[in-house]
Design goal:
Strand order of the largest sheet: 2-1-3-4
Number of strands: 4
Strand content: 5-15%
Largest sheet: 4 strands, parallel
Length: 209
């Protein structure tokens, strides 16, 4: 794997997932300083980010931007590429979850769970369907709010992990273990687009496969 790169991500959760996934794909660890946490994708569009990218490019390195597509894949893609052209910077873009659909990290994660655990999500979907049917007196307006997808992922892990404090800590973004094959499938077909993107852009130029 090449050493001259930076990967720009939205938050610590994205950085943790990518660090573990890259280790799974390449068998190597990414230095923390190579994962640039933007703390919100809008912070990509700053002169500081542009300057850092230009410096990497000038030294023969590559910049990767891996951020959420959110509600509109094409709109997000066009907005980022417009900023890229206006600021004359070089980077390669991948929009989570799969570089073609709307969504975010939680959508990606939902598609790479260990298939044996699918009944947990089936129960959650039943819960959501029943929730919207409820009429709570004094609630304005109905229906009740469906929990965020992040809560769904938390609930998935909470159901699988133990009740000790150390186990509970593994539910949150900071200590989540994506290399636990009982919970996640890092070889899932859904990740093929991301895997191909990383291999194309991070493979050592002198490496022959």
């Amino acid at each position: 794997m090449r050493k001259d790169f930076n990967i720009y991500v939205e938050g610590p959760a994205d950085a943790r997932f990518l660090k573990q996934y890259i280790r799974h794909v390449f068998g190597e660890d990414v230095a923390d300083e190579r994962l640039v946490v933007l703390k919100g994708w809008d912070n990509l569009k700053t002169e500081a980010s542009a300057a850092r990218m230009r410096s990497m490019s000038a030294n023969g390195g590559v910049n990767l931007v891996i951020v959420d597509a959110d509600k509109d894949f094409q709109a997000r893609q066009k907005e980022i590429e417009k900023w890229q052209r206006a600021n004359d910077v070089e980077f390669v873009l991948f929009l989570i979850p799969n570089n073609k659909d709307a969504g975010a990290l939680e959508d990606l994660l939902e598609n790479i769970i260990n298939p044996n655990n699918k009944p947990i999500f089936d129960c959650w979907e039943s819960y959501e369907k029943e929730l919207v049917k409820l009429d709570i007196p004094g609630r304005t307006p109905p229906p009740l709010t469906t929990p965020a997808k992040k809560t769904k992922i938390y609930g998935y892990l909470e159901a699988l992990l133990g009740e000790s404090r150390s186990q509970k800590e593994l539910i949150g973004d900071a200590k989540r273990n994506y290399e636990n094959a009982q919970h996640w499938n890092l070889d899932a077909e859904y990740l093929e687009a991301l895997k191909g993107f990383l291999e194309k852009n991070l493979m050592d130029n002198d490496c022959i496969r």
